Structure formats: C-alpha cells, structure tokens
C-alpha cells in the first residue's frame, strides 16, 4: 500500500543527481521565503545551502561545478545579509 508512492518517487529521483535535488530544494525554499520580504532569511538560506553543497561528498554530486556553486552561495549569502534592513 505505501510502497507504490515510494517507488514512483524513487524512479523519478534516479534520473537526477543529488546536486540537482538540492538545487530544487533551494529554489522551492527561496520561493517560500519571498512572501516574507526578508532578505536576511534569504541570505541565511543561501549560506545554509552553500554549506550543504560543500559538505556533500563529490561522488554524490557527479560534477564539480556544484561545489563551486556552494562557494558562490557562501560568498553571496553574507553580502545579502549585511545589506539587508529587515
């Protein structure tokens, strides 16, 4: 009864690597934070996902550009946080 939805989700996720799945979660989190109109929340999300990308083993990411994306998020996050007013 419960195995069918899990199999469908598993078959869908097998087409993508973990870097793409993390990116999807980042985009969904960004869209969820937009109604708050808080650049500090968005900056904290950027920094958190930057750390997640850097801590994820390279073998799971499949390509090294995800690590560079994590570094970019760690650079952009503090800049957005410092410039935020609320």
TrEMBL record:
Transmembrane regions listed in the UniProt entry: 12-34, 41-60, 66-84
Top-level lineage group: Archaea
InterPro entries for the chain: DUF8006 (IPR058319)
Ribonucleoprotein found in the keyword field: no
Entry keyword annotation includes Thylakoid: no
UniProt keywords, alphabetically: Membrane, Transmembrane, Transmembrane helix
Stated name of the protein: DUF8006 domain-containing protein
